[in-house]
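Researcher: Next entry in the queue.
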Amino acid sequence: MTASTGPGAGPNPKENDDLERVQSLAHDLIEGGNQHFRIATQPQRVLFWMADTAGACELVSDNWQDCTGQTVEDALGQGWLTMVEPQDRAALLEAVRLGTSTQRGFHLQYRLHQPGGRARWVLHAAAARFLPSGKFNGLVGTLTDQSDGHAGALALADAAQQVYDFLDGIALAAVALGFDGRVVHCNQALATLCGRELADLRGANWIDQYVSSACRAQVTALVDGLVTPSRLPAEMEYQIETPHGNRLLRWHLTLIRDFAGQPLSIAMLGSDITKLRQVEDHWRLSAQMFDSSHEAMVITDRNNLIVSVNDAFTLLTGYAREEAIGQNPRLLQSGHHDAAFYQAMWTSIAERGFWRGDIWDRRKDGSCYPKYLAISALRDEAAEVVNYSAIFYDITERKRLEDELDHLAHYDGLTGLPNRMLLQDRLEQTIASSERLQQKFALLFIDLDGFKLINDDAGHAVGDAVLRIVAQRLLAVIRGMDTAARLGGDEFVIILTDIGQRDNAARVAEKIMASLAQPCQTAGSSLSVSASIGVSLYPNDERGADELLRSADEAMYQAKRGGKRQVRFYGNVS
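Model: Structure for this entry, 574 residues:
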């Protein structure tokens, strides 16, 4: 919860727009008379509020009762504060007190109760109002429903913290980079490599302070949006500056998105390959390094038949030196890659003289593993290829860490279902596919009834167990082509693809209702939950991802108001 008041806390550009709108409203109210507060068209989730010079409420808009359940008369004076979540009232009272004492506006987020007791986050944007004489006459403000955005921000903060905790516990250098080029988070391994304290790194300009000058344009392309999000996850190499000179790292990049699907930051895992690259570039000049290296090395002739391997090769692949000599390296092929993959590899070697990348290979015992492989063409003085050299090493652990990082970024840690970010991607893909194939799909917004009582009475551990059971039941009802996701708390969303008719979506929703109505057996207890479900249809209701979510949410809210334990479709759909 944040507030900004007083001369030293001016609003940001977004807040300026809000305050100008509120100040314009204040002017209109003064010109029209404070006792005739009427707004012809009030947005459903926007409330208007006016306070006197002492901070007591003088007026609220006509839609106050519809949005809160409290009558307009009961809201006057200090009565409206009873609709504010108790934990938030102190901060709100302080913001109003500072606003009236300094004759300045303020912005504050807090929870406001709705009919039925459900709390929703609102953004309160207030401005000072003055009489034509210039005398301060109190405050006027708008309360805008921010619950969906706030919940998404909290869910995103949760997900981000999980990623940061993960980065802190690994041995690879790790950094989360914002799109302003600054370090959002990093781990101790990176701090040690850079010779700095964690506190010095966090918030620092990563590109200007730590990326070597020769590589800055390459990394700047990431934060300037020159690299399209669809190209991530990806691998890249660049040097960083350290107290011991420049170090070359191979980075795995994962894109983190916000709830709207927009890029938020980039998480990077880095392996120091400085020595490896030096070996790759110079190993032909050092037979001793070739034999003693911990990385597997192979030399073939111009016909790509093996002429030499080192001890690390035999240890990693299981093939003795005598078994490998004279063989083609294809004896290591895993079958995971098609002919086009190897064609692209050899095209790169022919045109550029080298190829580097990740590849799956097979050991002598038949087991497959991922490895980093670098192949170079060695030429004589006439520029003719005489040998090929290869250096590689096992990256199984790195792949495991990358997969775990990607999973944390896109899946709910409690239920294993897709989270908000992955749901956004799936929803946009479903819209594109449905538009191309001229198909309909349904979006189901599910909110559990009475779940708060389970948490309060049985405890959060039991509540978490119930949420996991709910997730399993949702997956059991839907098809493999559909998506079930958890938004946070007790809210779930399902994408039903290619439904054909509206009745098909209704039948699935009823199956979900019946499945969730079955008692949940957990911790030796039998607990019952039910659900309220709102449904929006594509393309009947909306054509955008965010609009479809809002429509389904609104339909679910109507189901709640209608008595819960029911399914409501958004609008009148044929």
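Model: Residues 1-16, 26-43 have pLDDT under 50 and may be disordered.
Researcher: Noted, moving on.
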